[in-house]
Design brief:
Blueprint (H helix, E strand, L loop, with lengths): L2 E5 L4 H11 L4 E8 L11 H12 L2 E6 L1 H9 L12 H19 L3 E3 L13 H11 L5 E2 L11 H4 L17 H10 L18 H11 L5 H6 L4 E5 L2 E5 L3 H9 L6 E5 L7 E5 L8 H13 L9 E7 L2 E7 L4 H4 L7
Parallel strand pairs: 1-2, 1-4, 2-3, 4-5
Antiparallel strand pairs: 6-7, 7-9, 8-9, 8-10, 10-11
Helix pairs in contact: 1-7, 4-5
């Protein structure tokens, strides 16, 4: 049986590309590469995720974490960034290079992606598709089933491993054809094509850019924090304040032993994490007091003259009563970068 390795983002296009090949009796292994910027929710629960993909899409998916090498690429992409901090062309090249290595290890005859000619302005123009193939070293072995009839035949097609007549001619930004094909396969539970990568988020991407510029060595936890809650820059470090329940849960999982945790003691409110930065002196009582006042501002008791705030530091806890911070006091401390 012919075997193919197909890149799988979790979205509709990559799902359909794999299914089109499977219709020809091809053994398709889908690989989902993950980093803290995309699909990292599957880290640590790979077995559950693969079972879910099998049930929803009928795909055999393997999940591979490529964070370490991806960060190296992100700091200096050859083709630069998109509108925000998204190195779309370099990202495609990087992932295809990794897939090329896996292809040999798994004994696959060719690679496949769900790309559609003209769908994305930066990475799916005809010239960009050629550059990606060339720089990734996958010329002739990369098949794009959804738009194959607009492109030159690949080696797999020329060798008769794939029936070109049964491939598709999708193009442009409209997704009507994809949605119709999804109905044909009985697929109705798929993600929206918008978003998905934190590097395209106008606020989170700027936070990540500054973080990468300021540190030689990054921990995954640092990157994950960039996408959670409100950020404030205080004299002693950074204060991260949850916006809603899911933020609170995420922040709670990202606490380190040296962090200070703050919460309203007697009312509903955010979970907050105060972390001293390496370049700053030790956190002072004045710093903690200001952090507590910000937490009080976003609590259910923000209109009270004083709000009890619980502070957990170094395994010890205490409660201090503070006046909620005023909006004009908080505004200069916002970290939108």
């Amino acid at each position: 049986m012919v075997k193919a390795l197909s890149l799988f983002s979790g979205g509709l296009d990559s799902t359909l590309a794999a299914r089109v090949l499977m219709d020809q009796g091809i053994d398709v292994i889908s690989v989902q590469f993950i980093t803290p910027f995309f699909q990292y929710k599957n880290k640590g629960c790979e077995e559950k995720a693969t079972e879910d993909f099998k049930k929803r899409f009928g795909l055999n998916v393997m999940i591979v974490d490529v964070t370490e090498d991806y960060l190296k690429m992100l700091k200096n992409p050859v083709y630069g960034y998109g509108k925000n901090f998204n190195p779309c062309i370099d990202c495609k090249i990087f992932l295809l290079k990794r897939a090329r290595k896996l292809m040999d290890e798994l004994g696959a005859s060719f690679l496949a992606t769900g790309e559609v000619l003209g769908q994305r302005p930066m990475s799916q123009r005809r010239d960009a598709l050629r550059i990606i193939e060339r720089d990734a070293g996958v010329e002739g072995i990369l098949l794009r089933p959804l738009c194959a009839k607009h492109l030159a035949p690949t080696k797999a097609e020329l060798a008769g491993l794939v029936d070109r007549d049964r491939l598709l001619d999708f193009s442009g930004r409209s997704r009507t054809a994809q949605m119709e094909l999804a109905k044909h396969y009985g697929i109705d539970d798929y993600a929206s094509p918008a978003g998905g990568c934190l590097l395209t988020d106008p606020i989170v991407s700027v936070r990540i850019r500054k973080l990468l510029a300021g540190k030689e060595i990054l921990e995954v936890q640092d990157l994950l924090l960039m996408a959670v809650g409100r950020h404030f820059s205080l004299p002693g470090g950074q204060l991260f304040v949850g916006r809603y329940e899911k933020d609170n849960e995420k922040l709670e999982k990202l606490v380190r032993p040296a962090d200070h945790v703050l919460m309203a003691a007697e009312s509903k409110g955010p979970f907050a994490l105060y972390r001293r930065t390496n370049a700053e002196p030790a956190v002072t009582e004045a710093d903690l007091n200001l952090a507590a006042r910000i937490v009080a501002r976003y609590s259910g008791a923000k209109n009270d003259p004083e709000v009890p705030v619980l502070i957990l530091s170094g395994g010890l806890e205490r409660i201090i009563s503070v006046a909620p911070a005023a909006e004009e006091e908080i505004e200069p401390l916002w970290t939108v970068y």
